[in-house]
Amino acid sequence: MEPFRYLRPGKPALFKDQYVTKVNETIKAFEKGMKGQTGIIGLPFSKSSISPSQAAEAPVRIRSCLGAYSTYSGERKTDFKDHSIIDFGDVLTHPIEVGETLERLYISVKQMLEVKACDRYILLGGDHGVSFPSIRAFQENFGTIGVIQFDAHHDVRNLEDGGRTNGTPFRSLIEDRVIKGHHLVQIGIRDFSNAYQYHEYSKEKGIKVYTMGDVEQEGILPIIMKEVSRLSQKTDHIYLSLDMDAVDQAFAPGCPAIGPGGLSSRELLTAISAASKHEKVKALDIVEIDPSKDFRDITSRLAAHAMMRFMYR
Predict the structure, then answer these.
(1) Strands 208-211 vs 184-189: parallel, antiparallel or unpaired
(2) Mean pLDDT estimate for the chain
């Protein structure tokens, strides 16, 4: 029997340009003994969100959006097709128990780090509550951690009103002594989006806060360069935490808590690029994308682009 001329059983019928390598083509599933440059793990949990959210669906969607981009950077005049990416898969979360899920996330990130397969890591949430167990695991593996948080909100809500939620990760990290307040930098804090008490808490704990007004006056690049330099002198490693609602709703409509007056997509990508060039920057988490609220994957595509800016230094 002659082979099919145009059918490809078990494979998608997609056009393939022989000269183009897409980012998703460079990803391999983790196997014992593998070594790579960037590791990816999915933290698909959004049951701790105080806003209705299907952010648990984001890791799969963001990965799929990597297929929209090639590995060649015209700006850097470099093809990153040989940059090795290892995918550790998604954490199996508990169907109802928040505490149990946070523990599973912590264990999974810790186990990923313990095999020492990669130089850097990208963690795909999920709501911002996943950053608490993730940063805890990084601190236990890498020592003192500095955090640069891109966010419209402080995320230092009290724990009495609702327990650990996507509004409490950085209060939890500080009060559990995982990180120190002056080792946390918050960029993009938006006007009329936080409470006075949380502004005062941030100030009391020594958190370095840059509002959108500060970004407008000082510029995103000088802020990033200054804070990466400062944190690198005080901490062993630096962790970037990207809450996509830091970005203006025009560029990131698929967030549960969208709002006007945020970062532009260009400002965000510039910031990620600048920060990732420092050798102490070891991780990037991307949280608060709800694909059900997105339009033509605008937000997930921006997240995929942020991943590339982080990986391809």
Answers:
(1) parallel
(2) 96
Question: 3-state DSSP call for residue 272?
Answer: helix
3-class SS at 220? helix
Q: Is the pLDDT of residue 111 over 90?
A: yes
68: exposed, middle or buried (C-beta count within 10 Å: 0-12, 13-18, 19+)?
middle
Structural domains present in the chain = 23-311 (3.40.800.10)
CA 51 to chain centre: 19
Question: For residues 1 and 237, what is the distance between their CA atoms, to the nearest angstrom?
Answer: 60
DSSP character for 67? G
CA angle, 313 then 108 then 237, to 5° = 40
Residues 6 or more apart from 66 whose CB is under 8 A from it?
22, 23, 24, 27, 304, 307, 308
Phi-psi region of 178 (alpha: psi -120 to 50; beta: other; left: phi over 0): alpha
pTM over 0.85: yes
**Paired sense of beta strands 145-150 and 184-189, if any:** parallel
State the DSSP H helix or E strand holding residue 209, giving kind and residue range, or none if neither.
strand 208-211
What is the rounded distance in angstroms from the CA atom of residue 265 to the CA atom of residue 247?
A: 7
Query: In this structure, are residues 178 and 131 in contact, taking their beta carbons and an 8 Å threshold?
Result: no
